[in-house]
Amino acid sequence: MGALKLDGITADPEPDWSFDALVSELNALENKLAATSSTEPLHSHKTTSRLILSAEKEVEKGRSFVFRAPEYETESEDDDDKALVLASTGKRFTCDELYLSDSDDSDNSDVNPTFELQPYLMDKVGEVEGALIELTHEHQLRIKDEIRNKISELETALLNESQNSTSSLLRVEKYKETRQELDKKFDTQYQRQIAEALDNHLTAVQRDRELRSQIEERKIRNDAAYEEAKRKVALQEERQQQEKAKAEAEAKLKAEEAKRAALEAERKAAMEAKTKAAMEAEKRAAAEAERRAEKNAIGSSNTVTSGMTQDRSSISNTETKESGYVYRAAANALNLENGRLQKLKELYERNQVIRSSSKQDYTSHESHISRNIRQIRGISDNVRSKASELIKLLNDRQCPQSFSVEIFVKKVISSCTNPGSATFAIAYVIVLITSQVPFVMDILLAELHSTCLYTVPKHMVYKKSIFQSKEAYFRSIGYREEDGKLESTEDYLKRLESYMTVYGAMVQTEIPNIQNLHGLQEGWAWLARLLNALPANQYTAVSLNAFLQIAGYALFKRYKSQFLKMLNVISNNFLVELKSHNVPELMKTVTDIQAYIEDKKFLQVPEGRNLQSNTLSRALEP
């Protein structure tokens, strides 16, 4: 179909213009108008430009636009305004009419003859084509509206979906927090239940262990009772067998003792002849001293001192020579020592015979005795239990009693070197044992005399004609030798002090209903013999100080004023003689003895004398 012409303007019935093409057409039209009419007002160009820009904006917005030509006023009021209306939708551009008017006063000659309207706009089309174009345009608009509606619906759906997702996430977070709180509560509750279950389990386990422990203890007690009963039966049988063996051994020993008795009788006869004169002199001096003490009991201490000095001068000059050594001692003390040493010698010989005839091992028996002695403590129940155990071991038929006694004596003397706080406890055990086994006391004293001669008391005199050197003399009085080297005098004096401490504790120990075979009267005799017969030196001074510290309290309770007189003798004679030696090593001992007398420490109970009870808070005094 060809282009249509309307009033000289050609229009394409099927326009396919773009906005750029329209703009170019309008610019070309404007240029032609400017070239043909130079007298056109300036504002017409501006108006045209504004129309073009307005059309551009309308097209960009997708709406139709109207292109209007400016109106020119003339002097004639009857002239109608002419307008150029341009309507366009999409790609369709319609120009209904183009009116060009001049004022009435203008002449036709003023019009540029070259101005002619050119067919730059689309031509008119038929009704069918116009209707088709309108339908197409409406269809496109409807499609665009549908698309815009779809897009709007999609945007709305997307926004709703986003809001739903956000709310869902919030609900999920809130559910998560709630779930975590519940989990925490459940976890706390579960842990509490676990703790309670564990506590119940541990309680049950502890209860079960206690029950098992009680059952085990009961079983052990029953087994111990059964074993004890069994052991008693075995002991009775063994005791009967041992009695038979002992009877046979005693028969043999009696024959040997008869032989030894004959030899001993001869030796004693010779010894008695030697000591008879000394004993008679001592008896006379003792009787004289007793008479003077009785007469002067109310007299001053000076009278007693002079009497003790005379007794001392009459006895202290008595020297006894044994095995080439010269001793200073009281005669009766030497006699008692010889009798005890003889019993000890016989015990050792008897044990030697048994060892040679028997190959039985008594090591376990010795360890039992040693363990019980080491376990002695200053407690009443401990002392009695250990004494009872040791008495059982001494009377055990599985081991000869002479063996048990020898072991016991040696272990006790060995413990005396370092008694510590068990000094009085050891003395209590000795007294309890010797009350049941009496001959143990003489054996113990003999072993103590052999170890420490100042327990007799006895002092060995140093003479160069007898001893080749001082070391030989020290060995003779009991210095120990290790690796070919003698111990120091300080160490020897410490051991001497320990022996005298145990000896002093033993003589002053008194137990109700128990007889002490070497009691306090023996301690009084020891003190008198030391002051009368022994010289004042560092050995006798240490012995005297240790003895007084332990036994002085008991001696004062028994002898009262007589003990005070004895202290005056010590102060006025013994200490004066010690000071005259002017030996620095003696000063400490002298000071201790002098302080003991001046401070009246004999009125104070020695520490450890009263055994402690493990069931009562008070001390048990013997």
UniProtKB/TrEMBL annotation:
Statement: the UniProt record of this protein carries the keyword Protein transport: yes
Write out the GO biological process terms. poly(A)+ mRNA export from nucleus; protein transport
Entry's localization field: Nucleus, Nuclear pore complex
Read off the InterPro entries from this record: GLE1 (IPR012476), GLE1-like_sf (IPR038506)
Query: Which terms in the GO cellular component ontology are assigned?
Result: cytoplasm; nuclear pore cytoplasmic filaments
Cleaved signal peptide residues: none
Q: Name one GO molecular function term.
A: inositol hexakisphosphate binding
| Renumbered residue ranges of the record's region Disordered | 289-319
**Polar residues composition bias: residue spans:** 298-318
Pfam families referenced in this protein's UniProt entry, alphabetically:
GLE1
Highest taxon of source: Eukaryota
Q: Which UniProt keywords are present, listed alphabetically?
A: mRNA transport, Nuclear pore complex, Nucleus, Protein transport, Translocation, Transport
Family statement drawn from the similarity comment of this UniProt entry: Belongs to the GLE1 family.
User: Which protein are we looking at?
Assistant: mRNA export factor GLE1
Q: What organism does the UniProt record list as the source?
A: Cicer arietinum (Chickpea)
